[in-house]
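Please complete every field before forwarding. Incomplete forms are returned to the sender.

SECTION A: IDENTIFIERS
Entry label: holo-168
Bound molecule: coenzyme A
Molecule representation: SMILES string

SECTION B: INPUTS
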Amino acid sequence: MDWSREICADLTIRLVDISDIHPGYLQALNDPDRIKYMHIGVRPKETEESLSRYVARSRDNPAEYLFGLFNKNELIATSRTHDIDQRAGKAHIGVLVFSNEHEGKGYATQLVQAVCDFLKDNLNISKISAGIMADNIASKRCFEKAGFHFHSIHPDYSDFICEIWVKS
Ligand SMILES: CC(C)(COP(=O)(O)OP(=O)(O)OC[C@H]1O[C@@H](n2cnc3c(N)ncnc32)[C@H](O)[C@@H]1OP(=O)(O)O)[C@@H](O)C(=O)NCCC(=O)NCCS
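SECTION C: PREDICTED COMPLEX
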């Protein structure tokens, strides 16, 4: 699958490959502050091997895709869409910008929008949802700009508030 979108001369969105993994990607995944809104519970340290397996799995699994935003060929953000159910026309999505150097420039919004367009145009997915921690203001704003709206509170968690945002 060689879908890609050029945002401008330097910025491109395409699927992530194992060869795109670099220390900055690993560093982001191992930075407690960066992933505090993304993972539930304690996670083992991500290594080059575990990250390679994760990227490989995303390429093998027909129910998920791992897209990346590339700045002059360097991967600077990812958006994973998963639990794709073509029969029901549904999918989930998440997003991660690796460093604060690249935040606040609309990159996450562009990436989420592109992945939503991909899901709609290629897989006929019409309902896309994201789980967002209630205090993750930047993420809520990003998804709002990408056309999502608040839907409900996730019923499965009691230690924190996780909101479900949808685009349909
Ligand atoms: C959340 C995240 C993806 C946003 O990435 P980004 O590239 O900065 O997002 P964008 O620039 O597209 O949009 C962010 C918006 O939030 C706004 N924002 C950021 N922090 C804010 C704050 N504390 N209060 C109010 N608005 C805030 C920005 O100003 C921007 O809105 P604007 O364009 O109207 O000014 C990024 O911070 C990240 O990767 N965080 C860690 C992982 C994570 O939380 N992922 C989401 C899991 S659901």
